[in-house]
What does this fold into?
Amino acid sequence: MSIAIVGGTGPEGSGLALRWAQAGETIIIGSRDAQRALETAAKLSASAGADKKISGTENRFACSAAEIVVLTVPFAAHAETLKHIEPSLRAGQILVDTTVPLAASIGGKPTRTLGVWQGSAAQQAAELAPEGVIVVAAFHNLAADLLQQQAAIDCDVIVCSDDKDAGKRVRELARKIPGVRALDGGKLENARIVEQITAVLIGLNIRYKGHSGLRITGLPAAAFER
Amino acid sequence: MSIAIVGGTGPEGSGLALRWAQAGETIIIGSRDAQRALETAAKLSASAGADKKISGTENRFACSAAEIVVLTVPFAAHAETLKHIEPSLRAGQILVDTTVPLAASIGGKPTRTLGVWQGSAAQQAAELAPEGVIVVAAFHNLAADLLQQQAAIDCDVIVCSDDKDAGKRVRELARKIPGVRALDGGKLENARIVEQITAVLIGLNIRYKGHSGLRITGLPAAAFER
It folds into this structure.
């Protein structure tokens, strides 16, 4: 099973790639520019260890070659990138959307979000993806700066999807990142809230100088294993 | 300094009243029905201890007598209650809005929210309150069931306000609830996100059978003291 990271040269994408490569996953860094994808793949291989499986190629080729596609582009490039990769996506593939519609993506504040007609970036992805592609929203609240380091991450990942099996698979992927716990956040429509939380966390980071994350309390331990 | 809890006979309001009374605050339970307010006040006194200062009266009288007014009514009664108490509010008073615009308040799902024209319930409160009343949004994510028990609560409170001093005062009030830490969530407009988080927590409660809350990670310890 291989994972394509579309926009994998960016901070969030390369951070996820690093963590999953270290956990033994096969990673394909995708970029609009194949050369940049190769450079990032080489850099990540140097960090993760030469025995790790990280390659790089143009976004469409990355999607064709992968079972799971993870979308990590800024919101300003979200729709355009989806239209670009659309011919390379196929029914049954899992498309993980990590996008937060920050106002910063069009020159506004990073503590504000844009209204997305469909309700959330993830729902926009579901509309733009070919029929049968299963969209899962996750990883919005993980700080890219922390992903790029080696330490365990003190944050939970809330996973939203209309497909229970795909959601479970992505929660398993989340748990491969040291420290991370994963929860079922319900249907894809709930991504509209989970995406927004990132704007609050960014505000806290600015106000208090930190890399904030969140932990969910008050649930039985089994909740984090399902 | 006394605190009026408008809608104080409900689960969230009576829970906050109990915790603050136990911490030594003077509490006035407000209700549309003065008799019900008195009954709740008596019940809370029995739980909190006879030396605690808890009284009950009609919402308007409660507001007139208090320095801080805490609004804990369901969203369906939010605007109407604000219009009712408006003549009893005065400039300089702090109005703490805990309201979450859950779709359940008009017969929809508790895991979905309603769009509020002003952006959030708290911003609606700011529009309806008399000029000079300082609105602070807080306590949305504290489970009423946990407030009504005696144990420390494993949850952080994110406080949003356009007035820094009022925000600080409400954070101090939050910290009087055992276990609770409080953070500055920025301007009142950010309440639109903090309010929504409750819908996600309710979804987790339904899915996993718990009383979920949230903790913010990755910030310096000093963040929770300011």
